[in-house]
Amino acid sequence: MRILIAEDDVQLSEVLTEVLTRRQYVVDVARDGLTAWNLTEMSAYDLIILDVTLPKMNGIQFCQQLRMAETKKHQHLKGAVPVLMLTARDTVADKIVGLDAGADDYVTKPFDLEELMARVRALLRRGLSTTELTLHWGCLQLNPSTHEATYADQLLALTPKEYALLELLVASGRRILSRSGIIEQLWSADESPVAETVNSHIRGLRQKLKAQGAPDDFIQTVHGLGYRLK
Fold first, then answer.
1. What CATH number has the domain bearing residue 189?
2. Sorted alphabetically, which CDD domains does this protein's record hold (predicted)?
3. Per-residue pLDDT for 138 more than 80?
């Protein structure tokens, strides 16, 4: 899952990035509201962590603009990205302004990191139906909550990036994923992996799946286009 942190406090954004990355999320960071907005137009996010007092475009303005854009795209009921608003302002009036602007949750600084992570998990779960809590593809089963994968009931020892890649393939069904599309989904904006990086992860997945009894072409290569599951 991909998360955008819009926060001008460098130390705080670095701490949040480290904690979220350790939990296997892909993280992009913006230091001002305008940069954050430009990132949302280039990438799809599963969650936005948004500081209220951003330069260039503050958090209230950003959130209002985001919700207006989603309404125009008919995403105001389903498909709207959750927004977790961060601020040092802790009055009831301030919270009402933030929530009325379209925020889904509101956390005041300073905050406990574990509580913040719990709120992040809760917001990410909102978009999942009960049928989506476990992903299946033939004998393959994925649990997005625990980041565990099994094939024929045998646990696959996957790296975080291998799990994320396999989850993306399952979620995409028979749709072909290009290498550039995979990179966009699984690596943050400040990383610069090459196509061979994706190929290497695919090879690792194939070897581990085959060791548990999966066919050689469980992950298919569509020459000149990319990859998909058989």
1. 1.10.10.10
2. REC_OmpR_CusR-like (cd19935), trans_reg_C (cd00383)
3. yes
